[in-house]
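Lab meeting, action items carried over

1. Structure of the two-component assembly. Owner: GW. Status: complete.
Input record:
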Amino acid sequence: MHEVNASLASAIELGTPLVLAAMGGLVNLRGGIVNIGLEGKMLTGAFVGVLVSWKVGDPWLATLCAGLAGALVAIPFTLVITRLRANEIIVGLGFNVLVAGLIGYLLPVAFGIYGSLNPEGLRGLPDLTIPLLDRVPILKALSGQTVLTYLALASIPATAWFLRRTTAGIRLRAAGEDADAARSAGIDPLAWRDLSTLIAGFFAGLAGAQLSIGIVNLFTVGMTAGRGYIALAAFYFGAARAWPTATAAFLFALVDAIQVRLPGNDLPPQVGDMLPYIAVVAALTVVAIGRRRRERLVEAT
Amino acid sequence: MLLPFVTALATGAIILWLSRRSAPHVYWLLAKHSLGDQTSLANTLAYTTPVLLTGLATAFAFRAGVFNIGVEGSLYLGAFAAAWVGFTYVHANGVILIVAGLVLAALAGAVCAAPAALLRTYLGVDEVVTTLMFNFIAIGITSYLVNGPYLAQGTANSMSPLVASQASLPRLAAPSQLTIGILIALAAAFLFWFVFARTTIGYELRMVGQNRRFAAASGIPIARVVVVAFLVSGILGGLAGGIQILGVNHRFVDHFSPGYGFTGIAVALLGRNTAIGCCLAAFFFGALENGGATVQLFTNIPIELINVLQGVVMIFAVVEIGRARRR
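Predicted assembly:
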């Protein structure tokens, strides 16, 4: 039982950055941009989070700054795509290489260290204990998490509601689905597209903060470890809908957590590492088969 | 070709200036340590080899309008296949090992590209996400193999046994790392040019890339052409991995690639998807990589600066091309 609880708590802790980044990427995709650059924005957030918490001593402010930093680097990213009409996929890949290079360059030049920033007395985000909930079996895994976990959980219905029920959300989706139609309805599609990228940047920045000052208390250059791509897998797996996307993200994290927590299982760890990627290819395949079948039916009638 | 190149160097100069280092001096050091003498030049060509092949692999697909960003995955499977041949048949003849290793590497690369090709052709699944995902799947598979069944006895983690010494690619300019791999890469570049300039399939690939509906209307078998683009791209990527293992690394190491496949995308973009352009761009990145590694040893300029330049090249290469792709 203890193992189950520990695995669940760990899954929620590890799932938090995935959910946050995936929600951002989902909004961005609905706004019309495939964001391959989540990885770089997460890394930016992770770095700024540690930096601010170290220099100012306030992990809460550091978390906010991490989100803002993610949004800040998203500005040139989105402008290059929307205004200079650059291919979003290439810009995303290039952006990730660029950010990793820039931070990797900055660490030794500015702080005289290579690879990881681990300042003494760095304050991380506190684990919040939720009264009563921490006594309930199973559900107590939800207690004792950082504020970002609760933010991530709240972001799921908030994203669904925002996209479905608010004017802004509907305009954003219109900009993503059909730019010309949106334009004729008086909506500036590029501006909405930019906004959706900024939202993605903010959320990815928060996701980075969870990695660096939430789960552990340090920054390393490789600490995102492809999580931006796993978030991408999650929102593709979830067909850009909030609940399925979040479910996928937590599922990926759960597999990860079980592997870490349960030594002696026969599954090699690499199989778990590959799971999100295999899952998304399988999901895209199933969706395509379904679409093909419907098309056949339409043709037949 | 000039805009991304100049922007990258300018960005690098600004970053160097901000960190109070002299950009002309650093660039001069980079040039000196990558082109200054015979061994430096040979090592630059050694660094050029894998990224020329991954660049050609990417460009081949891009020319046909196939957005294959999964060359890194092909490279990994190819690398493992070549290593496997080299450390399994340790008593075989060297020439046979090299040929078999590289052929198997090419096949493995094609195998990595095949699922995305089939999904795109028969089910209309966009290849961007699938090829991106297959990178991680291929890296995971090789990681499993080299940590599980093929972990070398008595070594640290995540390494295959060494390949038989007779399976190493012949060196061209000892003590540099340069091998006949560069000749294979250049031959591939020539074939790339020849295919697109002189052959029917090359014409068909170009037509499909430029205007798919027109190509279909002219009776070009789109599905077959697209599959060819994927597979040749995978073959070139696999070859890049095989040559890197048999030429330089001599064993498969988990996560060994510093992103040769992704640098290949930058090479293809900077080289405008042409054979000669890829050669020049790959040489540029080879020089940066080689010069950067040496400069880091002698000065306090972190090699990560090279990645900054590469990222800028990628971004500004597509800015210039503009609407290269649907969506």
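2. GW to write a short summary for the group page. Key points so far: Chain B has a mean pLDDT of 93. Chain B touches chain A through 52 residues (CB under 8 Å).
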